[in-house]
């Protein structure tokens, strides 16, 4: 949705990304860690051997965990209960999310008290009240900040949160009110590693989750552009359009089932095929429904964009690359995030956007135009972000990099 949709005039989108923060925990795990853990607790059955083979071939160099290698979680004989996992999430996840939010707020340049809306998301915790409350309290947000907590949306949650926040800010725009939204994603799937292993052992079915998921918290600040103060940064991207689509025939392919010991992921090997069948149509629909973009024939070429494509697995990226005719350069930051971090669920796409932002800001600065807030940038002028949530649901967003101000 754009300003044109809301107000009936104007060219510029109403909502912009003005701050990003990503925080990975300090404990770094290579594939050998998962293998040693599995063999410490279980016999090398055919199912485990296949699981370990998948782990070795994942192309993930490192994943991150809030739990260091000496933590009792990895070594205790009994598989932790979901209650114990909840305690771990609150102990480590809330501070991790606060750190990511502080980075995003600092990047934005505004004050926590100026945040009007919060959209938080996780699929690795189900506590009531949710984790967003303590995070907002630690950040010093106002008590009347409008908060929404999303759950059950899986890996698509980061983009779903942007879509929800955009709708909130457009509502404020319609009323002529300044609005700033903080998006918070916090995912700690490694606290369910023991649960995943136990499920594999009981069912004697290989489990790709052992070597795929890692922990991460990420945050974004969005602005509706009204009442911008001098200290707020120049927007990183405008949000041009958001689309969400349920993929027919995908029921049961991607799930995160809850049990007495936590969550167990189900990632069907048919998912890359479904992605391949859906992504071209989703991309075309996104372009067609974006005012100011749909009329240009060149915008229907996937290769002109940078792609923040959620790496649910390496095969996800290959499916998109093949069907859309993308180069590895188009997906460079998605491959990078996958190799260094793995699948961090809803926070992954925000991490990729952060990597694209950092690449852009590594360009030569033009101090005369915008001081230390402007960089010439690298990469494409537009970014397509894609993630697939449980169900399966495809979330897609088109971002546009702001053009440099004209010189006198």
Automatic annotation (TrEMBL):
Q: Which UniProt keywords apply?
A: Acyltransferase, Transferase
InterPro entries given in the database record: Chalcone/stilbene_synt_C (IPR012328), Chalcone/stilbene_synt_N (IPR001099), Polyketide_synthase_type-III (IPR011141), Thiolase-like (IPR016039)
Q: Which domain of life is it from?
A: Eukaryota
Where is the Chalcone/stilbene synthase C-terminal domain positioned along the sequence? 246-399
Q: Does the keyword Acyltransferase apply?
A: yes
Q: Which residues form the Chalcone/stilbene synthase N-terminal domain?
A: 53-222
Q: Which GO molecular function, any one, fits this protein according to its record?
A: acyltransferase activity, transferring groups other than amino-acyl groups
GO biological process assignments: polyketide biosynthetic process
Family recorded in the similarity comment: Belongs to the thiolase-like superfamily. Chalcone/stilbene synthases family.
By what name is this protein known?
Answer: Thiolase-like protein
Which organism is this entry from?
Answer: Aspergillus pseudotamarii
Q: What is the lineage of its organism?
A: Eukaryota, Fungi, Dikarya, Ascomycota, Pezizomycotina
